[in-house]
């Protein structure tokens, strides 16, 4: 195998597939990057068993300046190889493979590194009984960014580490919960005629890596099977395994009525919580307290070791019964960032029941964050 290529174009593709490569794997060859050269394109693949990313550089792509001299394949240590390429001196590089040894030259610099047989690299998943649809990349980014915050990071309940997607026609409902908070986003897909009925749980870690690849994309073709989801981004294909099992019924967790309601700018509330958490982070329980009394909202953060901060909130409205409620400020801070500084309605039922944050004036729960309060007595 032998080819030359523009180094910056090669680095971009290396970075894309490197998102799927982990140093912690039970299959040693998966710490390598797979490089295959055909008659008209260069294919790079990275995988960690849970996700796989394949990107193609075509000879017809003038920016890549790919010159194919001899086709073939090899797998090379991903981190070491990427570091070499990033530090080469010239604008282009040449890679030539002799057996299981790769020779990399650029300007006056030359490296030789050992690789492994490309035939030992696991094959990409095969898909059966596929459902397909095309979605807007912007809508997919919206779904991911507004729900991934509530996915659990604890492997004790693997099902909660995923984003639950329920597709019905052109509607997508995405839900995550770690049992302390919940995020829900309901979107009607635009620009697609596919009517897919599917219920899948995709690991939030997978969506984290996919979100970075979606930037700058227009549309994404999605294929769903019984145990895999594939996202086609043109020259790059992203594979993710699906989580097995039934996601908890979350609709019953969302309150249908409220006794107290607060409306204010998300950015202003976020700033106040940031200030209150300066003190709460110094205490052992990391809790702030919100008091709603006679139409006035007050936020308090306390640390027995350091002191106390108290702030009267600048609200648009406070209505309903008086209330005193405590919560983890980090959960509310994550939720508020979703609303990009727009006005939000915060609705309460009691000091021990979950409360919700929604865009001001909206009642359809299409964009909802739910937080469980902290019992302080």
CATH topology of the largest domain, by name, is DNA Polymerase III, Chain A, domain 2
- Please, how many domains? 3
Quick one: overall form?
A: elongated
Strand order within the widest beta sheet: 14-11-12-13-26-25-24-18-22
Uncertain regions: pLDDT < 50 for 5+ in a row? none
Q: Helix- and strand-based class? A: alpha+beta
* CATH uppermost class of the largest domain: Alpha Beta
| CATH homologous superfamily grouping of the largest domain | DNA Polymerase III, subunit A, domain 2
Q: What kind of sheet is the major sheet? A: 9 strands, antiparallel
Q: N- to C-terminal separation?
A: 69 Å
Number of helices: 6
CATH architecture of the largest domain: Roll
DSSP strand tally: 26
Mean pLDDT over all positions: 94
* Strand residue content: 35-45%
Helical fraction equals 10-25%
Please compute the radius of gyration using only Cα atoms: 25 Å
Domain DNA polymerase III beta sliding clamp C-terminal: 252-370
Subunit structure: Forms a ring-shaped head-to-tail homodimer around DNA.
Domain DNA polymerase III beta sliding clamp N-terminal: 1-125
Subcellular location: Cytoplasm
């Amino acid at each position: 195998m032998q080819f030359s290529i523009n180094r910056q174009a090669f680095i971009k593709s290396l970075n894309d597939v490197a998102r799927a490569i982990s140093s912690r794997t039970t299959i040693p060859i998966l710490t390598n990057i797979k490089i295959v050269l055909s008659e008209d394109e260069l294919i790079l693949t990275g995988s960690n068993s849970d996700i796989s990313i394949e990107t193609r550089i075509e000879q017809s792509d003038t920016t890549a300046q790919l010159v194919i001299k001899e086709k073939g394949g090899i797998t090379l240590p991903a981190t070491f190889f990427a570091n070499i390429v990033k530090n080469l001196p010239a604008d282009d590089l040449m890679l030539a493979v002799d057996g299981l040894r790769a020779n990399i030259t650029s300007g006056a610099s030359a490296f030789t590194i050992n690789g492994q047989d490309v035939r030992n690299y696991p094959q990409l998943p095969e898909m059966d009984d596929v459902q397909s649809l095309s979605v807007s990349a912007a809508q997919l980014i919206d779904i991911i960014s507004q729900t991934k915050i509530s996915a659990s990071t604890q492997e004790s309940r693997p099902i909660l580490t995923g984003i639950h997607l329920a597709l019905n026609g052109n509607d997508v409902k995405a839900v995550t919960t770690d049992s302390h908070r919940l995020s829900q986003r309901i979107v009607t897909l635009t620009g697609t005629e596919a009517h897919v009925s599917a219920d899948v749980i995709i690991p939030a870690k997978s969506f984290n890596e996919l979100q970075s690849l979606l930037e700058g994309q227009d549309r994404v073709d999605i294929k769903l099977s019984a145990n895999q989801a594939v996202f086609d981004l043109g020259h790059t294909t992203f594979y993710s395994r699906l989580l097995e099992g039934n996601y908890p019924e979350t609709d019953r967790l969302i309150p249908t009525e409220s006794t107290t309601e607060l409306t204010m700018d998300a950015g202003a509330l976020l700033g106040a919580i940031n200030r209150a958490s300066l003190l709460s982070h110094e205490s052992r329980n990391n809790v702030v307290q919100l008091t709603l009394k006679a139409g006035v909202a007050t936020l308090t953060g306390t640390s027995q070791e350091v002191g106390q901060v108290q702030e009267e909130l600048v609200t648009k409205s406070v209505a309903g019964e008086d209330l005193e409620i405590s919560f983890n400020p980090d959960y509310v801070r994550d939720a508020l960032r979703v609303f990009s500084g727009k006005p939000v309605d915060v609705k309460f039922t009691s000091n021990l029941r979950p409360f919700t944050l929604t865009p001001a004036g909206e009642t359809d729960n299409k964009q909802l964050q739910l937080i469980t309060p902290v019992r302080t007595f």
